[in-house]
């Protein structure tokens, strides 16, 4: 993902620092994030790091939110494409797989999982993590709605959980992105074929 590549000198200092933090986390985990290493990775002075971020908590929070906003931008583009071009379910699932997994298994995709785990240990980061998942849920609901899936709002969180779980599996095992695409198709087709339980008042058939 381009957001994780080495930043060019023209990139604002604050963004270069955040990009460096995400790269460090992806490579060696949150414990490896030190001001000295950030400065080296970002190509900025040590004073610049402390000037832009007074605490490590602020640094981690802003890095997580930056990553999520970049991801949300990609998903928003996908949702708009679904709405404007009337993509088939198969095409939407394939594009979702590309957005979620990218073209390569690299440290860039590990950073958010490291940050979410860290949020589990540090409640000060949980608000940022909650904002992240809310953004994913909202965008998933938009895509499902564009595809004509009933109960899109109810299925959104499940879709997000499926994508993230399979992405983690792919990172851990090297399994192909096709697994994610197949699982998304199974979920979406099942949701599209099933009448709305909320509308009927009856539980969905098993």
UniProtKB/TrEMBL annotation:
Domain HTH tetR-type: 11-71
Keyword DNA-binding tagged: yes
Residue range(s) of DNA binding per entry: 34-53
GO MF annotations, alphabetized: DNA-binding transcription factor activity; transcription cis-regulatory region binding
InterPro entries, per database record: Homeodomain-like_sf, HTH-type_TetR-like_transc_reg, HTH_TetR, TetR_C_31
Highest taxon listed in the record's lineage: Bacteria
Name recorded for this polypeptide: TetR family transcriptional regulator
Organism encoding this protein: Streptomyces alanosinicus
Lineage of source species: Bacteria, Bacillati, Actinomycetota, Actinomycetes, Kitasatosporales
């Amino acid at each position: 993902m381009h957001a994780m590549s080495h930043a060019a000198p023209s990139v604002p200092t604050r963004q270069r620092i955040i990009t460096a933090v995400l790269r460090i986390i992806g490579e060696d985990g949150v414990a490896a994030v030190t001001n000295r290493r950030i400065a080296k990775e970002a190509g900025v002075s040590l004073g610049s790091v402390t000037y832009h971020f007074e605490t490590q908590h602020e640094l981690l929070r802003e890095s997580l939110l930056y990553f999520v906003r970049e991801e949300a931008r990609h998903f928003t583009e996908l949702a708009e494409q679904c709405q404007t071009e009337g993509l088939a379910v198969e095409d939407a699932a394939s594009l979702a797989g590309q957005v979620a997994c990218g073209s390569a298994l690299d440290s860039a995709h590990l950073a958010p999982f490291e940050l979410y785990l860290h949020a589990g240990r540090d409640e000060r980061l949980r608000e940022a993590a909650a904002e992240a998942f809310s953004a994913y849920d909202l965008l998933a609901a938009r895509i499902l709605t564009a595809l004509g899936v009933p109960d899109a709002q109810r299925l959104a969180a499940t879709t997000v959980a499926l994508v993230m779980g399979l992405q983690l599996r792919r990172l851990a095992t090297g399994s192909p992105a096709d697994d994610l695409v197949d699982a998304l198709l199974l979920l979406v087709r099942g949701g599209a074929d099933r009448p709305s339980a909320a509308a009927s008042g009856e539980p969905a058939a098993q």
